[in-house]
Amino acid sequence: MRTAFGADFAVPQGYLNTPSIGVPPATVAEEVAAAVARWRSGGDQPGDFEPYVERARRAFADLVGVPAERVAIGSAVAQMLAMVAAGLPEGARVLTASGEFTSTTFPFAARGARITEVPLAELPGAVRGHDLVTVSVAQSADGALADLDALRAECEAAGVPVALDATQAAGWMPLELDWADWVVAGGYKWLLSPRGCAWLAVHPRVAERTTPVAASWYAGEDPWQTTYGMPLRLARGARRFDLSPVWFSHVGAAAALPYLASLDLAAVRAHDVKLADTLLTRLGLPERGSAIVALDADPQALTRAGIVASARAGKARVGFHLYNTEDDVERLLDALR
Q1: What would the pLDDT profile of 56-70 be if each residue is shown by its tens digit?
Q2: Which fold has domain 2-24+264-336?
Q3: Are 211 and 86 in contact (CB under 8 A)?
Q4: What is the pTM of this model?
Q5: Considering all CA atoms of the chain, what is the largest pairwise distance in Å, rounded to the nearest integer?
Q6: What dotted CATH number matches 46-261?
Q7: Sequence-ordered list of residues with C-beta below 8 angstroms from that of 53, at least 6 positions apart, any chain
């Protein structure tokens, strides 16, 4: 058991796979286990999960720097972005980064949008002439960070809306994304929640351009009054984009996200980035200022050496979060040797 940032984590030595699956604080795992125990004996009613959903919704808003009333809930990033894609005109021109994670791009391509890919560093300069920009704050494959200030300036000057995927950034980076048109993130990586919860922040200026393609009873102003019969009656705000929650996932998120939101995220970023940059420096490589590192190494060889990492885009991908230590860096260096 490791103790970090005021919480206990049953994370094994050499675990560097947070960009794939985050390890929860013990209290989060205990909350989910208790919910499963109640389910086993029929101890909950559907409405009992509402406080968990709302607690996680508010904490997500805090983590990405938007008002809570803008946030809709769902279970996956692509599912949420499909509502953005459905609101685009036919043949829309969508700009993204080369090698972008496909949950951030496939919803648009599947709707017939014309996708233009450019190197991440060139993204702000290519904004004009497009109908939308969709990009991750931190790239999944290698942790490269988008220049958000430059992107914001270019998008505002050109009047081009932007959808930001914060999945690989929220939880370790301090974020103030209230300027973005849409902000989406999945919860099971750096947000330390069970898989099956995601959130979409919708700026009021693009609410009418967002289509609730999977509208259900849960998207009503009062879900318990929209369970049967017509007419269509959706909530007035961002809750009109809500998807029915995966209960146990939101139980975990209701414990994990408020914990993360209570931390000094600048200190979390400094901790995570210091470990990542220490690794790079020791390997004779330039620092990158990200918690995610892609290495020219054999992931299977790392596994045999006791390092838990991922194979992504032909490289071994590792990530350093608040529960990692310098010992993990040393273990990885030994494995690489």
Answers
A1: 999 999 999 999 999
A2: Aspartate Aminotransferase, domain 1 (3.90.1150)
A3: yes
A4: 0.97
A5: 66
A6: 3.40.640.10
A7: 73, 245, 250, 254
